[in-house]
Amino acid sequence: MKEFKKDIYDLEEKRGEYKFLPEIQKAAKEMVDRKLWIDQLMKIEDLENQLSKQNTLCIGKTIYEWLDGHYIAGTSHFIVVVKKYSSGIWLIQDPGLPMVGNRKVNQSINNHSILGDIILVKN
Predict the structure, then answer these.
(1) Which DSSP category does 20 fall into?
(2) Distance between CA 105 and CA 15 in Å, rounded?
(3) Cα-Cα-Cα-Cα dihedral of 4, 30, 53, 88, to 10°?
């Protein structure tokens, strides 16, 4: 993990983001064993397509400051991505703090998707 995350690993470790790592590793192994895990990079267009289906939910990990357009190594933050709002814009539900419903944010920052890890829940 440290090798993969490089510079940001120490910051995330200091914030306590790896406190439950053993439990997460166990759950991840179960997801892989049950073929619920897809290890792939999802392009913005692919996620737009997935979210156009009625019963699909996306939980995305981003950096809180990126939601306001500040490209810095900030605080990890989870959001619910509802759908493509318009060209280059996501409609999200931001749990906060403070909570902001129906928030519109750029899909990318500095030519990169604002989303790192995502969880797609499909019905």
Answers:
(1) T
(2) 25
(3) -10
d(CA 27, CA 23): 6
Residue 116 and residue 61 share a domain: yes
**What is the reported pTM?**
0.73
46 and 90 assigned to the same domain = yes
26 and 49 share one domain: no
Are residues 71 and 34 part of one domain? no
Structural domain range at position 1? 1-39
- Which DSSP category does 116 fall into? -
pLDDT score at 39: 74
Q: At 121, give phi and psi (nearest 5°).
A: -115, 120
Q: Is the per-residue pLDDT at 13 higher than 90? A: no
Q: Helices marked H in 1-123 — which ranges?
A: 2-5, 7-14, 21-33, 44-51
